[in-house]
Fold this sequence. Notes:
Helix content: 40-55%
Amino acid sequence: MKAFRQDRLLVASTNFVSKVFGDDFLTLPELNLSKVVESESNSSEPIMLCSTPGYDASSKVDDLAAKMKHPYKALAMGSDEGFDLADKTIVAAAKSGSWVLLKNVHLAPAWLVQLEKRIHNLAPKSSFRLFMTAEIHNLAPKSSFRLFMTAEIHPKLPANLLRLSQVFVFEPPPGVKANLQHTFSAISSNRMDKAPVERARMYFLLAWFHAVVQERLRYAPLGWTKTFEFTEADQRVALDTLDYWIDTAANGKTNLSPEKIPWVALRTLLGQTVYGGRIDNDFDMRVLNSFLEQLFTEKSFDPEFPLVTSKDSLQLGFNLTVPDGTKKDHFVKWVEALPNVESPIWLGLPENAEVLLLTKKGQDVLRKLLKLQTIEEDSAESATSATSDGANAKRPAWMVNLQASIGLWLKNLPEKVQLMERTAESVKNPLFRFFEREMEIGAKLLKKIRLDLVELQGVCDQSIKLTNYTRGLIANLSKGTIPNEWKKYPVPQSLSTGAWIVDFAKRIKQLQDIRNSKDFGRSSIWMGGLFLPEAYITATRQAAAQANSWSVESLELQVEVLPMGTEPEADATSFIVRDVVLEGAAWRNNSLELTSEISQPLPPVKFIWRLKSTEETEKREDRIVLPIYLNETRAEFLVAVELTKPADISANVWYQKGVAMSVWSL
């Protein structure tokens, strides 16, 4: 599973655990927090309520305090003023036996360490409780004291606090249906059924929108380029916003015409403030606005208004439309009738996006398992796993295996990098200056890697003593992770050391080929294999402006996907990029095409610098602007370009499918 089907790793692991420990092992009962507080914890044992980003566990503390009628005070952490106030509040509550809720303590990891020490010196009453919403930290009060912490799981949470605490992890149930059920369970019938009757439908539209926005996070970087913290607080503010504008437009009437609903104001507030305020990527903002434009419109009150596009509905086999209803119960019944097995199409994503999600989760599990593995554990196999000859019999297995890997890596890597030959004429060329810097980066890193590997070889054959530095290298390499000292350019986190070495060797080879070429690689370049690809784009722009005496600011970049099998030709204003991958769509007959596949390799792509048109051009329905990222993680944006699309398919469809290009892949 690890080698061939990482997307099936989680399912296989779940089946294995169930077979070994029983089917009930992975089924946990509902948490009875009041029982934990009253009989299963004490004042010196904090209660940590951890959650995934976007899930707020503080409401459980609010509900418990209200149910038990116990006084408590909630504080938001994150500022120096909040630290001082928290210190005073904790001391006072420890004496009185009340509860304290600290929210977002993961924003203050250094303060948490101080808090841990301070709590050990407290002598609070048995009824005292301290609640914290955060990425976990520690506390040690009196017998009646209780410390509650709600937190997002975070690596900077002090380990001592985790050992000291009772830890409960909360995850929102995955799926649009579960998200809708959670939303409607938090909205009272009195609020949703309040006049005008159109309010209930608007609430449903917002609930669907919120579910889609949150569920797409599971499919990052395809759904969103990163994991934005869309929370229940966003939804609460959005509901208040709806109430204000609906009440204003209705002016006390029991009915409100859809035409009189201020749709533009709602879309603007939801898109730019409530939800969009968390987004820092223009293309993610475009996705968000596409859903707002699709859902929050007068047509949403039409019978059989589709929640997904008509073309995607054909793939589903049924129409997913807004239900008719004017009461909360009507919409709740519709939600209950939804199938339990959902398709990524509900979220606007390609059908096969589930494979991407499962593969990513499988890689995360493997990476975490490797972190748990230590050299000391491997060394237990030293007597049995090592070969029986005299040289290896006394060495641990990890040392023998690492030495063999180092030998292969050194064979893959060249001895050195030949640098560019600088002349008075060549230094005027922007491309020469760029590749001169690239080769200097490559040469320096290659020298560093080879020296480290040779030193590790000496450690493995026991001719060189182990140092703290080499111990750190061994800890990384034995687990297949890339040492931080080698990470001089971005690569996916899931890339193993062996694959990284091969990739680095390919980068060096390309630089040496470019050194020997006459056009600085214009006719065929692997842009993803450059250390600074953004600088290359800038250098080609400067070169085009220099060759034609143009202003750099007057140029724009255009692309042309070349037909398969053609001989690419480049001039002073263009360059040909190979190994480009199109994600979320297919390319056929010189146009984008919808597909269920996640990605498709493209033929060579010609990038051309041209003068911007001085005339205003109308927006063409058969063109769409797509981002180009460095790799499939979408963490490094390079440039945006226009491609041709079918005029009869809305641009929003392509946005929601996460269509983009990348220039690096394994």
